[in-house]
Amino acid sequence: MVNKKKNFFPDEIAIKPRRKIRACFIKGVFILTFCHAVPALSAEDKAQKIQFDMPSSDLASALNSFAEKTGMELSYPASMVVNAKSKPLKGNYGVQEGLNELLRGTGLDYRLTGENSVTLDKVAVAEPQSSTTTLKAMTVVGKNKVDDDPTAYKVTNASTATKTDTPIMETPYSVSVVPQQVLKDQQVIRVEDAIKNVAGVQSGYTNGGLSDTFQMRGFQNTNLYRDGFLLPSALGGGTTKRQTANLERIEVLKGPGSVLFGRNEPGGVINLVTKRPQATPYHSLEQQFGSYGFYRTTADSTGKITSDDKLLYRVNLSYENADSFRDFVKTDSVFFAPSLTWNITDRTQANLDIEYQHFDDTSDSGIPPIGNRPAPVPINRQIGDPLNNKNVGDRTYVGMDWSHRFNEDWKLSHRFGVEYLDKVTDFTFFFTPATAAGNLVNGRGRGFNNSTTQQQNYYTTLNLTGKFDTAMLKHTMLWGFDYFVIDNQGSQACCNAFPIGANFNVFNPTYQTTVNPGASAFIANPDRNQDWYGLYFQDQIKFPFNIYGNVGVRYDNAVGRNLTAGIITTENDHVSPRGGLLWKPMEWLSMYGNYSENFGPSNSLFNSNANQPALPPQTAEEWELGAKTEFFDGRLSSTFAYFDLTRKNMSVPDPIIPNRQIAIGEQESRGYEFETTGEILPGWKIIGAYTHMPYANITKDSSANGGLGNTGNRMFNAPRNFGSLWNTYEFHNAGLRGLKVGGGVVASGQSQGTNENTFQLPGYATLNLLASYGLKVAGSKVTFQLNANNLLDKAYYTGTNVGQMIGVGAPRMFMGSVKVEF
C-alpha cells in the first residue's frame, strides 16, 4: 500500500504550468493521470518515427520518459519495475517498435488496451521481480514533444551556443535552427539556400562564387563548422561550396563565438549538424531535375550492422551535374559520406565519419559596375574568359570521436578530425569598374589569377561536462581544450594572360582563343602554417525563480609561420570572456541579455614586408538584449534581439610612414532581429526572419595621405533591411491527404558594393512557391515535389567581393524531384 502519511503523491502536483498530474483512488487502484483527456493517437501517429536518445536507466524512469515523448498511456503494477533496468533507446522508432526495444531483456511485454493505452505484463519465462513493498497499479501518460516530430519547423534544443544540449528558451544568446523539414520543403542544395531563413545573416559573393561566404550582422564570414569542426576556406581564398546531402539541420549562433570556438569572425558561427546512424532501418533515393540542365541524385541509407545494435551505419551520397544561366559556368560534383557508430557499452560510444567530395567546376567572375550601379548587361554575360576558367579538385574529411558517460551527470568526450584539400583553379579577375563605354583594360583592370593549392586542417578537442548542485543553484559545467592546425602549400600565376593594354568590352565581349605568349609562369607560394590551442570553461547556472545564467572564459594562443622563410609572422595570446542572463517569468516567455568578446583573424599572417612590425589581432565585443516566446502549446516560437557589435584592430594604412599598416580600424553594426518558426494551425507551418540594421558603419579608418579614409561610410553588403518569409500547408483530410502547398518571399534593401561606397546594389524581392504530393506505393513512400524560385523573374545581385566584382542572382528557376523512402 502507498504510505499516505509520507505524502509521496499529494493531491495535486504541478509538473508544468500548462499541465498537471492529479492522484486518484479508483477501487483501491492508485493512478496518475493528466487533468484533461489525452487525445487518441491515430494509426499514422503510432507509425510515425520518433527520435529517441534515452540512456540506460531504471525502468520506471525510462517508461516515464517514453510516455512523455510518445503521448501513450502506460499502465502497470509499480512492483513490476522495481530494481529493473532498461536498455538505451537511441534512434528513430515507431511507438510500438520503440516500446518493444525498451522492454527487450526485462522479462516484460505489453498489450494494447485502447487507442493510446498500453498495459505491461510479465512474459511467461520471466523471473518474478523481487520487492519488499507492495504498490498498486500505476498509469503514466505524456505529451509528444516538438523535437520528436521530424516534420516540425520548430526545434526546442540546440547545442551550438553552449556545446551542451540546451533548450533554446533557456539559452541567453541568439541561436537559430534551420531544421530538416525546411531543407526538404525548399529543396536546399547549398548552405546559402538555407541561411536565408535566419535573421541577421545573408549569403555573399567572393572567389568567383566558389566559396561559401556570408554577411553576419554586417560582417563577412567565410568559415563554416561541421559538428563543431572548423571548415575554413583555403588560405588566400577559393575552395568549392559545401554539399548538403548529409545534413540533419543547420544551427546558427549570432554574435561572437570565440569563447567556445576560438579564432573566428565576429558575426557568428554557422554549424552544419550531420545525420547520424540509426538502429531503425531507413533508406531513400531522390532524383532532382531543374532549369539550365540541373540534375542531382541523392541517396540515404541507415540501419544496424549487428543484431544487438552495437554497430550502426549511415551512408549519404550525391551526384550533381548542372549548367548555368551564366555563360561558361558549370558544376560537376560527386559526394560520398559514410558514418559508423559503435555502441561499445551502455555508457560508451564511438563514431567514425568520412566525407569525400570531387569537384570539377568553373568560376563566375561576375560583372563590374558602371558609374554607381551594376553594368546593365544581360544576366548571362560573363567577364571571365572560358579559356582560363576551371576549378578542379578533391576534398576529404575523416573524423573520429568517442564519449563515455560516467553516470547521469558526468560525461567525457574527445574528437579528432582532419580535412585535406587539393585543387587547381584558373580564374579571371578585375579590380576596376568598367568605363561608361563598357571597357575593362586587360593587364591593368583585368587579368588572371591561377593557382594550385594543397591544404590540410587538423583538429582535436577534449570536453568534460558535469552537472551538480551548490545550495540552491544547479550547475552544468563544461571544461574544454582544443587544438587546430592549418598547413598550406601551393603556387600562383598572375596576371597577364591577355594582351596587355587591349580592351575587354562588357557590351560586346571578345574572348581569347589562345593564351598570351607573355603570360606569367607559376611561382611557388610560401608554405604557411597556422596553429592555435584554446582552454575554455563554461558554467550554465539555474537560479531560483526561473533565472538562468551562462558565464564562460577562454584563453587562446595562436602562431602563424612562413615555413619557406623559416620565420614566425604572428604570435597572439588572447582571453575571451562571455556572460549572459535569462529570466523565464512564464513558461511561454524568456527575456535575456549578454555580453561577448571575440578573438578575430590575424593582421600579420601574410606579412612579407621586413619594415612592417607585427600587428595585434582583430578583436570584437557585443552587447545584446532580447526576448523569446512560445505559443500554441509550444508549437510556435519567436525571438527578438537587439545587438550592438564592434570590430576593433582593423589593419589600415599608416598615415605617417609609407607602405606600412597600423591596427586602429573599427567597424560597428547595430540593429534588431525578429524570427518566428513553428506551426500556427495543424498543417500550417511557418519560418520567417527580418533584420533592421540602421547602423553598419566604418567608425575608424585612415588613408596613406593622412586622411580619414572610409570613416563614416557604410560597410559593404550590409543592407538596412532584409528578411524572408516561408510557409507551407499540408492537407490532412481524406480527399487531399498527402498534398502540400507553400510559398514565400526573400527581400533585401539597397546595399553598398564597396567600403568606399562608390556604387550600390539595388534592393529586390523574389517570390518562391512549392507543391508536393506524397503517397504510399507497395509499402514505400513516394513524394513528388516542384519548387519555383524567383517566380516573377526579378533581376538582383548577391553581393560583391569587397571590390568591383558583383555576383548575379539567379532568374526564374524550377526544380522538380521524385523521392522514394522505405
Describe the structure.
The protein has 822 residues and is mainly β. Helix content is 5%, strand content 53%. The protein has six helices and 51 strands. It has a 22-stranded antiparallel beta barrel. Helix 2 packs antiparallel against helix 3.
What order do the helices and strands come in, and which of them pair?
Layout: E1 12-16, E2 19-26, E3 29-34, H1 43-47, E4 50-54, H2 59-70, E5 73-77, E6 89-93, H3 95-103, E7 108-112, E8 117-122, E9 137-141, E10 157-158, E11 166-167, E12 175-178, H4 180-185, H5 191-195, E13 201-203, E14 214-216, E15 219-221, E16 224-226, E17 229-231, E18 247-254, H6 258-261, E19 268-274, E20 282-290, E21 294-304, E22 311-322, E23 331-343, E24 348-361, E25 369-370, E26 373-374, E27 390-405, E28 410-426, E29 428-430, E30 439-441, E31 446-470, E32 473-495, E33 503-505, E34 523-524, E35 528-543, E36 547-562, E37 567-586, E38 589-599, E39 619-631, E40 636-653, E41 661-681, E42 684-700, E43 721-730, E44 739-748, E45 751-752, E46 760-761, E47 764-777, E48 780-789, E49 797-800, E50 806-808, E51 813-821
Parallel strand pairs: 5-8, 16-19
Antiparallel strand pairs: 1-2, 2-3, 4-6, 5-9, 7-8, 10-11, 12-18, 13-14, 14-15, 16-17, 18-19, 20-21, 20-51, 21-22, 22-23, 23-24, 24-27, 25-26, 27-28, 28-31, 29-31, 30-33, 31-32, 32-34, 32-35, 35-36, 36-37, 37-38, 38-39, 39-40, 40-41, 41-42, 42-43, 43-44, 44-47, 45-46, 47-48, 48-51, 49-50
Helix pairs in contact: 2-3
